[in-house]
Amino acid sequence: MTTRRLFTGRLFCTSLALSAAMAMAPSLATAQSKLKVAAIYTVPFEQQWVSRIHKALKAAEARGEIEYKASENVSNADYERVMREYATGGNQLIVGEAFAVEAAARKVAKDFPKTSFLLGSSGKPQAPNFSVFDNYIQEPAYLSGMIAGGMTKTNKIGMVGGFPIPEVNRLMHAFMAGAKETNPKVEFTITFINSWFDPPKAKEATFAMIDKGADVLYAERFGVSDAAKEKGKLAIGNVINTQDKYPDTVVASAIWHMEPSIDRALKLVKEGKFTAEDYGPYSMMKHKGSELAPLGTFEKKVPADIVAKVKAKEADILAGKFTVKVDDNQPKSTAK
Predict the structure, then answer these.
(1) What sequence ranges are listed for the domain ABC transporter substrate-binding protein PnrA-like (predicted)?
(2) How many CB atoms lie within 10 A of CB 310?
């Protein structure tokens, strides 16, 4: 009897141990399946372009898919060092922007062939592990231009950009083409502030344009909408929707959604299938990578005929009947 009880007791204990192990298994598996992802940004998290990448990664973190670390305000001179630290630290995917540090970023990618890199870049993918992306949101930029052309009373539109690089140039050209479609008489004044984040400088540039008669301003950078609000003029937003902060100023915005690109990269890294490719197309409307923001407070202020034209053009873009031209050349002012 004693031996039998002891044997039964051992079985019971073993069963308990197995049950406990099985109960813990899902959490252990979940912890092990989380990808380690790091991001490096040269500007603050709230800067509009970076905020969209950060938002998509934070969403993946909230879903429990990734462990996410990020550094903001990293200087160009320090970028390579931070990249190497994250790669050495075992991060499986590193996200960021390489526009001003192309050579250094690509060198790091070569030194860490087993790490996946997804960086904003005007250059081409670099095999085997350096993928590039850009905010190809020229389609909603065109639509927002159509609205701007219909809203200007002076036929003068001011445009303030960061740097004249392809990802900015193509959006400005698309916006200008859209404005010309609804208003062939419109003229443009264009200024680049040579900074990705300098709201006071963007504001001063906008004031100068307003003084010359611009009554609609294209806010590629922060600071433009503040100036427009102060002077009672209108603004068109870019990348994010700030109408909640400027309900009487921001008419429309071309919105960028980075989630399709980030979610694709995470899936491929998990599957061990990440390769060097161009993620640019995943920012386009057909992939839900961009959209024209709802008119919101301006829903009844934009002329009905302009709204109808914009809706028709949007349908044509989604149906593949109309393609917004991609022009990466630096745009020029047309105002006399």
Answers:
(1) 49-264
(2) 24
